[in-house]
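Q: Got a minute? One more chain.
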Amino acid sequence: MDYPTNNHNSEKGDHNFNRFNNHKPSEHHKHPDHKPNDHGLNEHRPNEHRPEDHKTHGPHPPKKDHFPKIDNSPDSLRIKNPWKIAAIVLGVITIALLYMMYSGTSPLASSTTGEEAGEIIIDYLNSRTGGGVTYISNTDLGFLYEITVSYNSQNIPVFITKDGKYFVQIALPITEEGPPSEPPTNNQQQPIQVSEDDDAVEGQADAPITIIEFSDYECPFCEKFYTETLPLLRTNYIETGKVKLIFRDYPLNNIHPNAQKAAEAAECAGQQNKYFEMHDKLFENQQALSIDNLKQYAKDLNLNQQAFDSCLDDGTMAEEVNKDLAEGISYGISRTPGFFINGRPIEGAQPFEAFETIIKEELEKI
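A: Always. Here it is, folded:
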């Protein structure tokens, strides 16, 4: 807030300052059109406190006092009946606070603008992905900002609280049946029991370390894991018999319109024992996941085309995909990809080193 300053550069200001100090201007300083006025001590406001105010001077011309009485002693300036002044000040402050509260202009309501929130989320996402995320736009949702970002030529909506402190990957609406059940919070150091279901397994069935992945074929961060981390896991741990990978579906249908059918396509290919062949095909062609594309990939993999098309068109595997999604929510998955390494949770497109650290710790327990 800008506060008023004691600026004495104006002619009127200089004049009042001289009168207050009982100092008469010399003749050559007088303006020919200037007339004496009645500005004196009582017109000097108490909040314009200056060291010179404590000096004693000669008497001033008597005048009618329209202001609170001032004790012009050398020690202090005291306003008589200060409680009345304090009550007025508090009343003004209360009115101002009420106005800000009900008008939505309170500084506590939002500490960031939409543009600032966009910058915060872009910095955060780029730190997690290694770069390539750019800002598109923002929308004020009242309690959150929806920030649209671009990554790998895809526009992706993400969410951030208005104080700029919390990133929300997905905002789930509350239905008429009531709010969704709150996912359990997992202690990062405490393993939990996660079902392998009957989902596809890559690696030896008796491998001592089990990684269960919940993923979305249209999620750019899942594609980042597939491109950068999975090849190293395959070479160092899966192909050496130390780790097995179980892939479970977690399609974010409200922001990834092709994710559901892509997941079903992989399950349909799995019925012909080519789940991970389709899995790889989908991530390598993430920007082309239409129904026609999915059927073409089945042809490329030499699947029984009629059986695959029927499975995909009839939604044969939709229930299986939805079951994975529901169980992922129950395990507290809050972003994709999400992983459990022998029950120990790890979220996001983490680098290979993050996985290797936990794998080595688990291997030491054997």
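A: The two ends are 64 Å apart (CA to CA).
Q: Perfect, thanks.
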